[in-house]
């Protein structure tokens, strides 16, 4: 019994090690230029942030829905359902914040609805490792993106935007928790992991860039 | 309010200041690069009294306000602005402060009207329930807001077609659309719209169509108190409300369960749904 407990402990620490190594590799290898918030008023910045975050949560909602449609009766079904519920909560928060700040939602919502579901279902068809890999890729892109926004808001005025900063920080932590969950569930074992991850992250960044403006 | 002025504005202002200094020696005191102008009326008071400093924005705003009085006689043109400036004691060439001429006057007027409507609507929505159902907009608030906004055009109705033509100029297009966007967004929001999906856009586009068509109608309306335009407005708003209801009905029938039900019924009819029990 002690051996099995030891094995469990080892495997947990080794997974944490994988997560940390993965994040470090990510920081070194990924090339991104964070957008600058110069030349934008506070209101314009918040308008942009809320629009793109709402689009992101709608996309994530649809991705999990697509994954669950394929993987509902497998071992990861309940896990995906749990992550989906958290994304639904995020989406509802932004749907409350947008009218509050008189922000404009993105005009590409119908597109993200379809694209999200397609991505979720498409990745899940290749197996549950692929679905987890898709989750990891998306959550990485979203995590970086939330960090950029938090930085921009802090640059502008941390006191004035305290409430929004709290919300963004909490959601960023939730998304990184999903990322860890994905890694723990054999995301790295998915076939063609690097290619798929690269394509999905590039797609996410394009979607983010478009939703900021349209 | 302070912002970095464009080069053309700075050079235009500098040349006007020099011109004013040569004609009116009292202005030569303020030849520094600071913003405030001395207003003419204070020159007659005791010079030891505190001089009333006016910022550039306030000055431009007050000149345009006076210029509006001259629109019925001179149209939306630099002549009206020159007359407005003269009413404040400045020479007619002060219209050089406004590079777009009549366009600037029209935008000033439109911004003022939109601000008045915003304030009125905010006052209204304070009284009503905040958590409105976003599936229908209040028709009474819509009608009152549109009527109030269109009535603001009445004093300038003779020259409003000229203003509408001015909005087509390239220098005026962007601000025209910005002002329109703000107007329609305010009206939509305060009549109860809290949508965050694509209907945000469809509603505003539809209301934009209503507003523009009524604006076109009112400039050629000769009836007493523009009654025909208000009837036209009512008919357009009815169309808008009906379209909203049609969309809701369609949405009720385009969900996945409905389609799978149609599919199953089709298979039943064709007899291919033979499920052995």
Automatic annotation (TrEMBL), chain A:
Binds 2 iron ions per subunit. Pathway: Cofactor biosynthesis; ubiquinone biosynthesis. One of its GO terms (cellular component) is nucleus. It is an enzyme of class 1 (oxidoreductase). It is found in: Mitochondrion inner membrane. SUPFAM superfamilies: Ferritin-like. Fe cation 1 binds at residues 57, 87, 90, 175. It catalyses: a 5-methoxy-2-methyl-3-(all-trans-polyprenyl)benzene-1,4-diol + AH2 + O2 = a 3-demethylubiquinol + A + H2O. It is a peripheral membrane protein. The keyword S-adenosyl-L-methionine does not apply. GO terms for biological process: determination of adult lifespan; regulation of gene expression; regulation of reactive oxygen species metabolic process; ubiquinone biosynthetic process. Component of a multi-subunit COQ enzyme complex. Catalyzes the hydroxylation of 2-polyprenyl-3-methyl-6-methoxy-1,4-benzoquinol (DMQH2) during ubiquinone biosynthesis. Has also a structural role in the COQ enzyme complex, stabilizing other COQ polypeptides. Involved in lifespan determination in a ubiquinone-independent manner. This is 5-demethoxyubiquinone hydroxylase, mitochondrial. It comes from Stichopus japonicus. The lineage of its organism: Eukaryota, Metazoa, Echinodermata, Eleutherozoa, Echinozoa.
């Amino acid at each position: 019994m002690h051996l099995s407990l030891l094995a469990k402990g080892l495997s947990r620490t080794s997974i944490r090690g994988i997560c940390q190594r993965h994040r470090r590799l990510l920081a070194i290898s990924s090339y991104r230029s964070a957008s600058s918030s110069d030349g934008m008023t506070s209101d314009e910045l918040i308008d942009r942030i809320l629009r793109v975050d709402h689009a992101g949560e709608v996309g994530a909602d649809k991705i999990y829905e697509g994954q669950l449609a394929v993987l509902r009766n497998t071992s990861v079904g309940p896990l995906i359902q749990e992550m989906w519920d958290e994304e639904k909560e995020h989406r509802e928060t932004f749907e409350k914040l947008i009218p509050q700040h008189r922000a404009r939602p993105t005009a590409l919502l119908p597109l993200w609805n379809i694209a999200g579901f397609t991505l979720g279902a498409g990745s899940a068809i290749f197996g549950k490792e692929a679905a987890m890999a898709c989750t990891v890729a998306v959550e990485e892109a979203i995590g970086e993106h939330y960090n950029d926004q938090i930085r921009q808001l802090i640059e502008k005025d941390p006191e004035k935007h305290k409430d929004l900063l709290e919300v963004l920080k909490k959601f960023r932590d939730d998304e990184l928790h999903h990322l860890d969950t994905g890694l723990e569930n054999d995301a790295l074992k998915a076939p063609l992991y690097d290619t798929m991850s690269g394509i999905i992250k590039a797609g996410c960044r394009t979607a983010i860039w478009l939703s900021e403006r349209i | 309010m302070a912002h970095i002025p464009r080069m053309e504005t700075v050079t235009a202002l500098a040349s006007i200041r020099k011109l004013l200094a040569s004609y009116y020696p009292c202005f030569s005191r303020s030849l520094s690069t600071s913003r405030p102008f001395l207003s003419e009326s204070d020159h007659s008071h005791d010079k030891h009294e505190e001089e009333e400093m006016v910022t550039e924005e306030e000055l431009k705003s007050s000149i345009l306000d006076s210029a509006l009085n001259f629109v019925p006689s001179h149209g939306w043109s630099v002549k009206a602005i020159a007359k407005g400036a003269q009413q404040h004691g400045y020479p007619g060439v002060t219209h050089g402060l406004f590079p777009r001429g009549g366009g600037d006057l029209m935008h000033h007027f439109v911004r003022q009207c939109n601000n008045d409507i915003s304030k009125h609507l905010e006052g209204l929505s304070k009284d009503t329930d905040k958590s409105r159902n976003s599936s229908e907009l209040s028709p009474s608030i819509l009608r009152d807001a549109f009527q109030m906004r269109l009535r603001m055009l009445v004093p300038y109705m003779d020259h409003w077609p000229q203003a509408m033509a001015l909005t087509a100029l390239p220098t005026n297009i962007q601000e025209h659309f910005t002002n329109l966007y703000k107007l329609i967004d305010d009206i939509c929001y305060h009549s109860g719209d809290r949508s965050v999906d694509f209907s945000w856009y469809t509603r505003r586009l539809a209301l934009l169509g209503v507003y523009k068509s009524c604006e076109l109608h009112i400039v050629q309306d000769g009836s007493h108190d523009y009654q025909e335009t208000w009837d036209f407005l009512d008919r357009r708003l009815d169309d808008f409300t009906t379209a909203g209801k049609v969309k809701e009905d369609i949405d009720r029938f385009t969900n996945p369960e409905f389609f799978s039900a149609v599919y199953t019924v089709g298979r039943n009819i064709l007899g291919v749904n033979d499920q052995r029990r």
